[in-house]
Amino acid sequence: MSRLISSESSGSFTATNKNHSLFKKYISSSLSYFILIGTFLLLLGATSLFYFLQPYFEEIYLERMGTVSGISLMIVGTLLLVFKVSFLIYLLFLYLRYKPIKSLLSNEQLPLCTVIVPAYNEGELVYKTLMSLAKSDYPPEKLQIISIDDGSKDNTWEFMKKAKSILGNRVSIYQQPKNMGKRHALYRAFKLAMGDVFVTVDSDSIVKEDTLRNMVSPFMVDDTCGAVAGNVRVLNRKKAFIPRMLHVNFAFSFEFIRSAQSALGSVLCTPGALSAYRREAVFNCLEDWIHQTFMGQVSKIGEDRAMTNMILKQGYKVLFQRNAYVYTNIPEQYKNLSKMFIRWERSNVRENIAMSKFAFKNFRKENKVGARILLLNQWLKLVMAYPAIVLMLFFIFTYPVLFFSSTLVGILIFSSLHAIFYAKKHNVSEAFWAYPYSVFYAFTLFWITPYAIITAGRSGWLTRDLPMKETKKQQQVIAVST
Fold it and tell me: Is 304:227 a contact under the CB 8 Å cutoff?
């Protein structure tokens, strides 16, 4: 009888969980349709408003063109638009030239590879990451896996030991005496590494079976290759709206932007989620990298962009492998997303300054013009950050209808480029999330770059202390997704 009751209770509990899961899925699906429909109604409404109020806008235009400030603004605006459109066409030309380097099929051709996984307060996520790496189709005798626990305060170390108990000598695990930051964890692993190629993977990421093989192949066919950036996709994209929107943006950022940069041999940033480095290139700059300072303080952020810069400075190419996939978690809450973007933008400010010190010199024998154009585009974004904020506030208070309608029309046009690209390369239905993301960014994240510029000297990681609730949620996402 007790077994029967227990069985019935268990069945009831399972059914309740299933119904709850289906209910949540229904709510999420309904909200998705609501957001997408609402976004298109907003954009189409703004387009209609812009069209019907054209005589009013022309009157404003003629009024402003009668002043020196109005003429100056029109000239600067036209020049910026011409530059941006020309730059986009230039990237398209480079993108069409890009081809990923084919994977080496012969195990004999593959180099000794060291995979490094730094971890801090990741819990079960690091276990999932290590197990996915062990499942790679890379020959085990040529693969060294090192994971460093950077003084975690949760059960990260226990899950690293669990992976060690299963994988044995295939993985080596170490603990930092205290939390010293990701850069120091990587530094220790670089010193321990025996590989000819180092691959770094974030501890909340999952790689495909052929990822490692695809990542190391460029080094074996091109002696001038010093680093390789992997193709980052969003793992938790089906669990929240922010990851769902960013997934489309990531595809454009990596598969279009980095493909174009790779055609120049000048990818500006090898992402922390998945990157590979030539051993010699790393050790040529390792001490400068670990002791890097900004405004008199030791740098604790932007270790990936800094390493990329220092390898470019040596004259090496930095390439992108579109066929090397990694699936990583990103923040699901606005607060944590904004902190991540602030950290990235602060790193951009610092490393643009660092790159400017060598990019206009004879830093390598091959084409240097492309790298300089990419850098100038980076600087344009930073230089225009404050004027753009001032103009935005001016138009909001003086011509609000003109500002909001023209901004939304612009979003409709440029988001369509992202959406068309994603639809052609991946999935049509998901491509529509390019539009909500652009609206979301334009009206809630526009302040990130100006704020990052004035706080560039700060070195806090910001997202390291995620609320425990979100950390547990991300662990559940990994468990479900894998």
Answer: no
Angle at 420 between CA 328 and CA 425, to 5 degrees: 50
Q: In the chain, where are the structural domains located?
A: 29-50+101-482
Q: Terminus-to-terminus CA distance in the chain, angstroms?
A: 38
Burial level of 82, CB count in 10 A (0-12/13-18/19+)?
exposed
Radius of gyration of the chain (CA): 24
Asked if 230 and 218 touch (Cβ cutoff 8 Å), the reply is: no
pTM higher than 0.90: no
Compute the distance between CA of residue 437 and CA of residue 245 in angstroms, rounded to an integer. 5
C-beta of residue 454 within 8 angstroms of C-beta of residue 269: no
Other beta carbons less than 10 A from residue 459's beta carbon: 19
Using one digit for the tens of pLDDT, what is the confidence trace for 2-45?
444 444 444 554 545 555 554 455 456 678 888 999 999 999 99
Tokens of 230: 């992997």
Q: DSSP 3-state assignment of 11? A: helix
Q: Does domain 29-50+101-482 have CATH number 1.10.287.130?
A: no
SS3 of residue 153 by DSSP: coil
**CA separation for the pair 320, 230 (Å, rounded):** 6
Of the candidates 254, 258, 248, 261, which has an alpha carbon nearest to the alpha carbon of residue 418? Answer: 248
CA dihedral 311, 290, 204, 256 (to 10 degrees): -20
Q: List, as one string, the DSSP characters of 67-124.
A: SHHHHHHHHHHHHHHHHHHHHHHHHHHHHHH--PPPPP--GGGPPPEEEEEEESS-TH
Cα–Cα distance for residue pair 389/384, rounded to 1 Å: 9
pLDDT tens-digit profile of 57-114? 888 878 877 788 888 888 988 999 999 999 999 999 999 999 999 998 789 999 999 9
Write out the two tokens for 382: 């930073």
Cα separations in angstroms, 431 against 91, 218, 247, 252? 20, 30, 9, 11
Q: Which residues does 265 contact at the CB level (< 8 Å), separation at least 6?
A: 224, 317, 318, 319, 366, 367, 370
> What is the Cα–Cα distance from 374 to 90, expressed in whole angstroms?
10
d(CA 65, CA 74): 8
What is the model's pLDDT at position 23?
Answer: 43
- CA torsion 463→469→475→476, rounded to 10°? -140
Record the tokens describing residue 5, joined without a space: 């009751």
Q: What is the separation of C-alpha 162 from the centre of its chain, rounded to a whole number of angstroms?
A: 29
